[in-house]
User: Which sequence fits this backbone?
C-alpha cells in the first residue's frame, strides 16, 4: 500500500463540486420543507395580531445570516477556527462545511418551494412543491453514488475501496468497461466465474477517469 505506484483517490463533498451540490440541495430540501411548515404556522397565528410582517422579516434575516456565514467560511476560512476556539464545540472533519452547505441548500430550495407553492396557486403549486421531496431523495442517492474513496495497487493487482471497506483481487476480474461523463468515469467490472461460482465484489464504481484508465489497463494487460 505504500508503493509509489499506488494510485489513491478521494471524491466527496470536500473536493468534488457535484457531490457537494447534490448533498446541499438534497438535505437542504428537507430542512426547507420543515422550516416552511413552521413558518406557515407562525404566519397563520400572527394573522390576527398584525405580526406577519415580523415573521417575514425574521425569515429573511435568518436566510441572510446563513448566506453571510457561508460566504465568510468560503472566502476567509476563519469561521471554523473561531468556533473551534469555543470550549465544547467541535466542527472538525468538514462538519461545519456540511452544515453550512445544508443551510445554503435550505435557503435555495426554500425559495424554490415557496415560489412554486404560491406562484402557481394553492392547488397546482402545492402539488408541484410536494414533488421536491422525492427529488431530494434522488439528489441524496446521487450524491452517495458519486462519492468514491480508494486506492489501486498495480503491483499487487488489487483494488482497495473505503466507505465501506472492500478489497478486489483484479485476477478475479475478467474485463473492465469504462463510460466517461465529464470528470467522472463509471466503471463496470465483469468477474470471471470459475466453475460457475459467484465472485463477490462491486459491479459498478464511480472513480476519476485516470483511475479508470489505469484499472482497465491492468486487467486487459494480462
Assistant:
Amino acid at each position: 500500500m505504500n508503493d509509489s505506484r499506488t494510485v489513491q483517490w478521494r471524491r466527496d463533498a470536500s473536493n468534488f463540486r457535484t457531490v457537494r451540490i447534490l448533498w446541499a440541495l438534497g438535505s437542504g430540501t428537507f430542512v426547507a420543507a420543515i422550516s416552511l411548515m413552521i413558518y406557515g404556522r407562525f404566519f397563520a397565528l400572527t394573522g390576527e395580531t398584525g405580526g406577519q410582517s415580523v415573521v417575514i422579516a425574521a425569515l429573511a434575516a435568518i436566510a441572510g445570516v446563513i448566506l453571510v456565514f457561508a460566504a465568510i467560511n468560503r472566502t476567509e476560512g476563519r469561521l471554523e477556527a473561531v468556533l473551534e476556539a469555543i470550549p465544547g464545540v467541535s466542527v472538525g472533519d468538514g462538519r461545519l462545511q456540511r452544515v453550512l452547505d445544508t443551510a445554503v441548500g435550505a435557503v435555495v430550495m426554500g425559495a424554490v418551494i415557496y415560489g412554486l407553492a404560491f406562484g402557481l396557486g394553492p392547488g397546482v403549486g402545492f402539488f408541484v412543491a410536494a414533488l421536491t421531496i422525492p427529488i431530494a431523495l434522488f439528489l441524496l442517492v446521487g450524491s452517495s453514488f458519486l462519492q468514491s474513496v480508494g486506492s489501486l495497487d498495480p503491483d499487487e493487482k488489487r483494488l482497495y475501496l473505503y466507505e465501506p471497506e472492500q478489497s478486489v483481487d483484479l485476477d478475479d476480474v475478467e474485463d473492465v468497461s469504462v463510460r466517461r461523463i465529464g470528470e467522472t468515469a463509471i466503471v463496470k467490472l465483469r468477474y470471471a466465474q470459475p466453475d460457475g461460482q459467484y465472485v463477490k465484489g462491486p459491479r459498478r464504481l464511480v472513480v476519476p477517469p485516470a483511475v479508470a484508465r489505469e484499472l482497465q489497463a491492468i486487467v486487459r494487460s494480462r
